[in-house]
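[09:14] KT: can someone run the structure on this one? pasting the chain below
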Amino acid sequence: MPKIVDHEQRRAEIAETAANLIARGGLESATVREIANASGYSKGIVEHYFDGKSELIAAALAWANEQYFERAAIATKGKRGLAALRARLGATIPNSASLRAEWKVRLVFWGIAAIDPDLQKQQAARTRDAIAHFAGDLNDAREIGELSSHGSVTSAARHVLFAATGLSCTILHSPRAYTKKVVEAEIDQIVSTTVAPMR
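[09:31] RB: done, structure tokens below
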């Protein structure tokens, strides 16, 4: 009887391997041959699931983002408004080795997306989704009376994303300077700066 292959699981395993290689050694480390060696699959199987380097990198980012979504769902469970916003930022900003690895994959993808129209579209969609999540927290904050009706929620959500992205990139360059306490203070600053005009 032929072995039943879980194609989604296999694809996810290869994407995770690619993400780990990119995080450790950059794009040059994530060759098809190296991914095959590290994943335990043959080069042919890797090439069967991913048609070229761009697809592999996109899949690695999708895997990293899936880790974020799971983490954010846990962090924000039972929270609303500004408490949820702070928790979401805490799940976003790289204050641990595993989160820094995710962000390294993002930066590699962003660099390629800057010159690849198809990847640009993917990243634009992800950016819209991220803004929508932050906007949802801010809308909830309005509903429960933490914020007034002044100002645009979407505009404020964009600024939250911009600030979180800038902070995350800075942390990658100086991880030792950003202890958990420092990151928490920076998150408080992002929230207070963003919501001040809306109060």
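[09:33] KT: thanks! The CA atoms of residues 142 and 182 lie 28 Å apart.
[09:34] RB: yep, looked fine to me
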